[in-house]
Structures are given as structure tokens and as C-alpha cells.
Specification:
This protein has about 200 residues and is mostly helical. Helices cover about 75% and strands about 0% of the residues. It folds into 2 domains: about 50 residues, Homeodomain-like (Arc Repressor Mutant, subunit A, Orthogonal Bundle), CATH 1.10.10.60; about 140 residues, Tetracycline Repressor, domain 2 (Orthogonal Bundle), CATH 1.10.357. The chain is built from 11 helices and no strands.
Length: about 200
Amino acid sequence: MKNKEIQEERMRGYFIEATKEILKGEGLRCISVRNIAERAGYSYATLYNYFGDSKELIYECVKDFQDECGESVKIDTANVSPGKKRLKLICKSYVKYFVQYTGIFELFFLEKISDLASKQPTVELIRTFIDRLCEDDWNHLISKKVITKRQAEQLKDQLRLTITGLLLFYINQRYPQSYEEFNKHLDEQLKLILNF
């Protein structure tokens, strides 16, 4: 890699990290080119040398947040074979990440699509995230003829909608009131969905 490319990657990284800090701490409503540049320690004109607009930065942050969550899931499921048990653990790890980083949950699931959408497929990236985390397990269950491909698609929808709904109530309305109760409710729902 040439010095210029290294410098460009470094500069892009500064702006991405600044955007992530703002998103985690203050949320999307505080994102502006000026705020990002100020947090990164550069002028907003410099930011435009590396990114077209703040939506491009948000897309990069979504990918980074998903990578972070994916790493947490890998750690939490490292010694578990593909199948129903690991599906459940993936879902629980995914939920744990969003409970820990509620600002990221809000970015992913509560912000207006028009505030996130750009040339990049940000919305689709978010919508299919849990599916991608569980893809190997669904394929394993299909290959072992535990479920059909059609059943897997229906179960993916159920899982995606149920988990998002549970998180929405817990994060925004504190229902149920304790994390312990929330986890119990999550376990019950996962048991119902994965009862095949």
C-alpha cells in the first residue's frame, strides 16, 4: 500500500470513528458534517475530500457496528455446533449487543429510512443482519432436512420481527422492567419459534 493510500485510509478512519462516537453517545439527530469534522479534529471541507456526505459515513458506521456485533456473536457461540442451540445463542448475543448499545438499536430500527438511505443499501443491510448472522445454522438445518427452505424463510421472518419487537418494548418502554424478566421473555419466544 502506498503512503497516499495509507494516509487516505487513516483519514477516513478518523471520520468514521468520530461518527461512531456521535452515534453511540448522542444519536443520529446530532450527526452533521460539521459535528463529525469537529470531533475528528479536522475541518468539514477536509471531510468532503473523503466522503460525499454524512449518509455515506453512516453507511460505513452501520457496517462497522454490524462487524462489532458479529464479533460478539462469534465469541459467544465459539464452541457450539450449528443448529437450533446455536441459533438461540446467536439471537441472545445479538439482543445483548443492542441492549448494551441502545443508540445503535435506535439508529438501526427507529430512525427514518430517508435519514439513512443513500446510494448504499443501508436499509437492506440492517433488515437482513440477523439473517446473515444465522445463515450457516439455517443452511445446516435445511441440509439435515430438519426444516425445508420455505420453513426457514418463514422462521427467519418470525425471528426478525419478534426480536426487533421485544427490543423495541424493552429499550423504549422498559417492558418488562428488568433485564432478567426481558431475558426470560426472550427465551420463551425463541423456544416457540425454534420449536421444530
